Amino acid sequence: MEHVPREKTPILVIDDDEALLMSIKATITSSGIMEPALLSDSRSALDFIGRHDFHLVILDLIMPHMGGIELLERIKEEFPAIECVIVTAVDDTSSAVQAMKYGAYDYLVKPLNSEKLIITITRALERYDLRNKLTLFEGSQSFSDLRDAEAFKEMVCADKAMALVFHQAEVAAPTDYNVVITGESGTGKEMLARIIHRLSNRAEGPFVAVNMAAFNKSLFEDDFFGHVKGAYTGALGEKKGFFEESQGGTLFLDEITELEKGLQGKLLRVIQERELYRLGSSKTRDIDMRIISATNRDMKLSIQEGVFREDLFYRLNMFHINIPPLRERRGDIMPLARHFLRKHAGLNGKRITSISSDMTDLLLMYSFPGNVRELEHIMAKAVLLEEGDTLTVRSDSDLYVSLQSEDSKEGLLPLEEMERRHIRRVLESTGNNRTHAARILGIGLRTLQRKIKTLDD
């Protein structure tokens, strides 16, 4: 069987059971989605796909001639942009994980639930569109292209590395995808999560932030699922858990990789079924929230080490945003430093209006292992100790000591030599583009040219 509707369609369904093909077609068209193309012979699938512009392929796991996993793998090799959904009569976790590894968007079990099928199709098509939008920004990263630059004003940034992060957030926000934000401690993961929430269709709903490292089994079930009156000794009334508290909004799970593996299955079930039982209750409660997770760890390495469930990873990681560390976006250091100077000078009633050139040099040479959070701590301490109207090196001797420790293998270096080495590194990283290097260093072009003359003196 080979059927192509008159109107161009983005959906193809492949299954050797023609009756099931017609049933899926009826479900899709009755929901208002465009009529899908149908194919019953998996052997002709790749040629068929090559002759049409499909965005989504729904395929059976077990078919004669070419099975679903093999076909999935070949589709993703030849047409990587196409989203794929596996359908099977076997509810097997290992098959689901294998399908996700090869790039499947989702895994549905027969008999198909019509509502879940339509939701899956809608979201898969949304992700196809979302990925196409992102390719527009990956080539040229610019803050000027943001639709709502005002939404990001609390994240002070000038480096182009953050422009892509902001574009990713803007593109992901209107969808209902679960998002994983990765980045070192202190890069601003929760701040970005709150911005995504405010830009989303759930902005009127609550934003509930939870640190997953704080929970063991006894705390997790009560705090996340809630309880009914009398569920246990001391349960004097009903209690909503975090899932219900975030109803209609966003649940932010910080340090997600710290959750005990035994509890990860409970989280997975709620994500998959969109329902839960409060402790002490046999009544199901529907859940409607979006999950944004964050971690400073490599989630794939955590999976390899056996401390994080792979199936949970695929449910959480529908969209991924990585925030680069501050040392990789040095163009942000001085704008952030000046921002924190104004903030903490105001909080402490001080009239400090500028940062000395020596202090600027130190800040630009430091690697900031604690990222933006560490930079704020440095500026807050320096403001507190500074007695003049210009922030100087004298106000934070610890910063100089930290810089010296970074170069401890070569012994303690004079500040002038550290500055020379840093200027050389910046010039090398910019391909000797002096205008770009001056912007990264936070100094004027003429000042840089003057310093360059002394490099080899």
Describe the structure.
This protein has 457 residues and is of the alpha/beta class. The protein has 3 domains: 2-128, Response regulator (Rossmann fold, 3-Layer(aba) Sandwich), CATH 3.40.50; 140-324, P-loop containing nucleotide triphosphate hydrolases (Rossmann fold, 3-Layer(aba) Sandwich); 327-453, Helicase, Ruva Protein, domain 3 (Orthogonal Bundle), CATH 1.10.8.60. It is built from 19 helices and 15 strands. It has helices at 18-30, 45-50, 68-78, 93-101, 114-138, 160-172, 189-199, 217-225, 242-245, 261-273, 299-304, 310-316, 333-347, 357-365, 371-385, 397-406, 415-429, 434-441, 445-453; strands at 2-3, 11-14, 37-39, 56-60, 83-88, 106-109, 179-182, 207-211, 250-254, 275-277, 284-286, 290-295, 319-322, 354-355, 390-391. The strands form 4 sheets. Strands 1-3-2-4-5-6 form a 6-stranded mixed β-sheet, sandwiched between helices. A 5-stranded parallel β-sheet has the order 8-9-12-7-13. Helix 14 (357-365) crosses helix 17, helix 17 (415-429) packs across helix 18 and helix 18 packs across helix 19 (445-453). The mean pLDDT is 88.
